[in-house]
């Protein structure tokens, strides 16, 4: 895979701007500066002379973390990933001096599978973290509700005792007025 990616990078390096333009247009990142930067970095990593699947996956991981911190989800990254494959294949189809389309397509498919697997794992971890946070928040809210219920019951008991004392005082007051 890495050997084919290096051949692809060597052949498509001179088409960097064309691939970037196609990627940005296809992924809809024109209006999103963060996605534009991601597209630029991923094209640079893919077309670097020392490209490797691991370097591309590391770039995806960094971008995914940034998107998670911005609470934006993985949709844009997945869309850009698919668009990158299509952009590279479209340039190969224009007659670029590149590995055979079949080899390039196979390499991009393998890379895409690895990327998707890793991105889904990251998303699963993020969902698990969010679920745990929500459960913890729910448990805290339930505990707070129990404490408020206990406090409310104590206030009701105190009010009941106060009312009972007030009734007794009123009764004594009434008896004293009759005797006087």
What does this protein structure show overall?
The protein is mostly helical. The chain is built from 6 helices and no strands. The N and C termini lie far apart (108 Å).
Which helices and strands appear, and what pairs or packs with what?
Blueprint: H1 2-12, H2 16-27, H3 33-46, H4 53-69, H5 75-93, H6 101-179
Low-pLDDT stretches are none
Indicate the mean pLDDT.
84
Count the helices. How many?
Answer: 6
Q: Write down the secondary-structure element order.
A: HHHHHH
**How many DSSP-defined strands?**
0
Largest sheet: none
Terminal CA distance reads 108 Å
Rg from C-alpha positions?
33 Å
Anisotropy-based shape: rod-shaped
Helix/strand-derived category reads mainly alpha
Estimate percent helicity.
over 70%
């Amino acid at each position: 895979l890495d050997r084919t990616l290096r051949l692809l990078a060597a052949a498509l390096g001179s088409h960097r701007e064309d691939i970037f333009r196609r990627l940005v247009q296809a992924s809809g990142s024109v209006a999103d500066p963060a996605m534009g930067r991601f597209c630029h970095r991923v094209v640079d990593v893919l077309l670097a002379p020392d490209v490797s699947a691991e370097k591309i996956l590391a770039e995806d991981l960094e971008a995914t973390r940034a998107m998670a911190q911005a609470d934006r989800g993985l949709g844009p990254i997945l869309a850009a990933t698919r668009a990158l494959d299509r952009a590279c294949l479209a340039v190969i189809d224009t007659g670029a001096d590149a590995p055979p389309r079949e080899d390039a397509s196979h390499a991009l498919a393998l890379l895409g599978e690895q990327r998707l697997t890793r991105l889904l794992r990251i998303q699963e971890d993020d969902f698990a973290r969010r679920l745990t946070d929500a459960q913890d928040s729910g448990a805290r809210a339930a505990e707070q509700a129990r404490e408020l219920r206990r406090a409310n019951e104590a206030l009701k008991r105190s009010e009941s005792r106060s009312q009972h004392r007030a009734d007794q005082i009123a009764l004594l007051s009434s008896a004293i007025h009759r005797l006087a």
